[in-house]
Write a structure and sequence with these properties.
The protein is an all-alpha fold. Helix content is 81%, strand content 0%. The chain is elongated. The two termini are 25 Å apart. The mean pLDDT is 93.
């Protein structure tokens, strides 16, 4: 699965959980941290490829 697609899916899930359980719920926080990790990975990958 493409990283951008995974980020989008996780972001949508985090929003749904945040709305239903609250922004400070442990599940929302865990999803947010996982999302941060994926975004950092994407940024590292983007920086390692020179633009043409």
């Amino acid at each position: 699965m493409e990283l951008t697609f995974q980020i989008e899916l996780l972001r949508n899930k985090m929003i749904r959980v945040g709305i239903s359980k609250g922004l400070t719920a442990s599940e929302t926080i865990k999803l947010s941290e996982a999302l941060d990790s994926l975004i950092c990975l994407q940024l590292k990958m983007d920086c390692s490829f020179p633009s043409l």
